Amino acid sequence: MKKLILGIILVTILVGCQGENKEGEKINIGITQIIEHPSLDSIRTGIEDALKDSRYKDEIVFNYQNAQGDFITAQTIAAQFNENSDLIIAITTPSTQAALNKIPEKPLFFTAVTNPVIAGLKGANITGVSDMSPVKDQVKLIQEFLPKTKTIGTIYTTSEANSTYLVEEFTKVAEKAGYKVIARGITSVTEVASAMDSLVGVVDVIYTTKDNNIASAYGLIVDRANKANIPIIGATKDFTKAGALASSGISEYQVGYQTGEMVIRYLDGKKIQDLPIEYFKKSELTINEKQMKKYGILLDEEQTKNIEIIK
Which of 24, 74, 100, 283 is positioned for an S-S bond with 134, CB 3.0–4.6 A? Predict the structure, then answer.
């Protein structure tokens, strides 16, 4: 009986210490990212900055791996991290889905995931921060800056749950506002050019959702749109910087920073089940000065207060 009681006490102590890090011990954090582009890189920077600002800054060792857009590679990275990392952070839905398949017990934090439920991201060892895009605000940008618009074109990757979901949500809101939406599905970045060509001459505005293939080919999209005099409304500030007319979206950096803060709470001793999924709700409005002049858009005093001008 004494052995049984001692065993129960030991198990209780071990469970109670889950997530708590002893001072001085190295904390190996694996960061897996499906592909490199500015939006995802901003998220990663936010994660790293939050952890570098914490009391664990001298103990943390980052191991960053990029899957170069390949899901099988993402699974290989996840399996490797399962062996040599104390906790894993997955950036984007594909990276998180790959990691969840290969990491059954170690703490797994996701970020840059729009809809965790639709993506099937559930389990005793997983939580994270959603970056759901404010599609209503994006439709309002079109109404405000491009009032003559009747037809909106958009491109999305059919295999990306995030992208598919966002295009569906955007379409519902846009159609309710009286617009016609033409969506072109692609399977890889190589199909972006032909999808853009199919929209030229047919749509008044291009809407670019958060999509890894779209982000990777953004320069091409901007070039095609500029030549055809079709303004672009984007879902992130990075798209405005890259040449979209305007965007309404959450701060990718702040999403990453919030994810890092969640990881810190875990390291402080919180259990995964006590860290519910968080949603970043504050959006930021941006407009590209060069594109604003191209399309003859003038801002009044009130608009100037509420929107950041990207030069």
Answer: 283
pTM for the model stands at 0.78
Number of neighbouring beta carbons within 10 Å of residue 103: 25
For residue 11, give the amino acid letter. V
| Digit-coded pLDDT (tens) for 21-42 | 555 689 999 999 999 988 899 9
Tokens of 126: 């997983």
Give the residue-averaged pLDDT of 88-105. Answer: 96
Other CB atoms within 10 Å distance of the CB of residue 251: 19
Angle between helices 192-199 and 218-227 (to 10 degrees): 20
Rounded to whole angstroms, how far apart are CA atoms 29 and 65? Answer: 11
Q: Of 285, 270, 268, nearest to 22 (Cα)? A: 268
Contact 1, 249 (CB under 8 A): no
- Which two three-digit tokens encode residue 291? 């594109």
CB-based contact 222:243 (threshold 8 Å):
yes
Could you tell me whether strands 87-91 and 27-33 are parallel, antiparallel, or unpaired per DSSP bridges?
Answer: parallel
The count of residues in the chain is 311
Q: Is pLDDT above 60 for 94?
A: yes
User: What is the CA angle 65-71-77, rounded to 5?
Assistant: 30
Distance CA 310, CA 290 (A): 8
Structure-token pair, residue 200: 């030229």
pLDDT above 70 coverage of the chain, percent? 92
pLDDT at residue 7 is higher than 60? no
- Both tokens of 253, joined, read 């950096």
Residue given tokens 């790293």 in the structure block: 48
Longest dimension (CA), the chain: 83
Residue type, 234: G
